[in-house]
Amino acid sequence: TTTAGWRSLRLVAGATASSLERTVLADAAGLFSRAIGVPVPVVSEPVAWGPSDVLAGCPQTTRAMPEGLLPVGGRPGQYVVRAASSTDGPRVTIAGVDPEGARNGLYAWMERVGFGFFRDGEVVPALAGAMPIDEGVSFGATPAFRWRGDMIWDNYLGPRRFCAAAWTEAEWERALLFMARRGLNFLEFYPPLEHVLALAFPKAVGLSEGAVWKASVKHALAARVLERGRALGIRFMYVLNYGFFPEPVRALYPALEW
After folding, report:
1. Residue 172 and residue 36: Cα distance in Å, rounded?
2. Any residues with CB less than 8 A from the CB of 52 and at least 6 apart, and which?
3. pLDDT in tens, 170-228
4. Residue 113's CB: how many other CB atoms inside 10 A?
5. Given a cut of 70, is residue 256 above it in pLDDT?
6. Of 172 and 242, which is predicted with more confidence?
7. What are the b/e assignments for 53-75, b being 16+ CB within 10 Å?
8. Are 129 and 137 in contact (CB under 8 A)?
C-alpha cells in the first residue's frame, strides 16, 4: 500500500465531461472540502497528474480512461473503481459505463473512505494526513435493475419532515441528493395537478386551481425540482391524475379516457 496526501486531492473530469459528471464532481468537491478543511478543485483533463488525483468519468467523455477496465457490453449505471501505484496517470480511476455509472462509482468510492449518505443528510468524515491507496485493488457494481428509485407523495398536508407538500427547495435538494448519492435514477413525481390541467385544458369551465397550496406557486417549485433532479441523473415519471379526470374536463371532452 502506498499513500498520498488528502490535502493535495484533485478531482479530474473528462475532457468532454457531461453535465451529469460535472454536477456530481462539484457536489463531491464540496463534500471533500468539508472533510479535508481546504478547497478541493475540479479540473479537466489533460492534466499533469498529481499524487492524489482521482479521475471520474466514462469512455465516451474521458481520454485517459484505461482500456479494458470496463467489460465489453456493460450495463447502464455499471462502474469499476481501480487504484494505481504509478504517477503517470490518476491515482484512483472511477470508470462508468456511462455518465450514470461514473456518478454511482464516485459516490460508492466516497462511502469507502468514510462518507455516509442518508435521507436526513450526510456524514462527513475528518480526512487528514495520508490518503490510503490499495494498489491494484478494484471494486465495482452492476445495477440489477435499469430503473431504481422512489415515489414521493406531495399532494397532501402533514409534518414537513414526512410530507413533501410542505417542502421548500431545501428539502427537495436533500431528497434529490440522497437519491443520486445512493445510486437511484428514477422518481415517480406528482407535479401540481390543478395548474397542469388548467394549462392543458384552458376551456374547461369551472376547473379549480385551489389545492394543497396555490397551484401556480407550486408549479414554479416543481420546475426547479425537475431541473435539479435531471442534473443529478434522475428520470421522472409524471402522475397527472389518479384514475379519473375532473368533471369540467370530462364535460369538455366526453370521450376522454384514463
Report:
1. 27
2. 4, 5, 6, 8, 9, 10, 91, 131
3. 999 999 999 999 999 999 987 666 677 777 777 877 766 555 445 666 778 888 999 99
4. 14
5. yes
6. 172
7. bbbbbbbebbebbbeeebeeebe
8. no
Distance CA 2, CA 134 (A): 7
pLDDT, tens digit (0-9, with 9 covering 90-100), for 50-81: 889 999 999 999 998 888 888 778 899 999 99
**Burial zone of 85 (CB within 10 Å; 0-12 exposed, 13-18 middle, 19+ buried):** exposed
The Cα–Cα gap between 16 and 110 comes to 23
How far is it, in rounded angstroms, from Cα 239 to Cα 173? 20
Name residue 233's amino acid. Answer: G
Q: What is the pLDDT of residues 113-133, one digit of tens each?
A: 999 999 988 999 999 988 877
How many CB atoms neighbour CB 184 within 10 A? 19
Is residue 188 within 8 Å of 150, Cβ to Cβ? yes
| The three cell numbers locating residue 190 | 406528482
Taking the mean position of all CA atoms in its chain, how far away is CA 64? 24
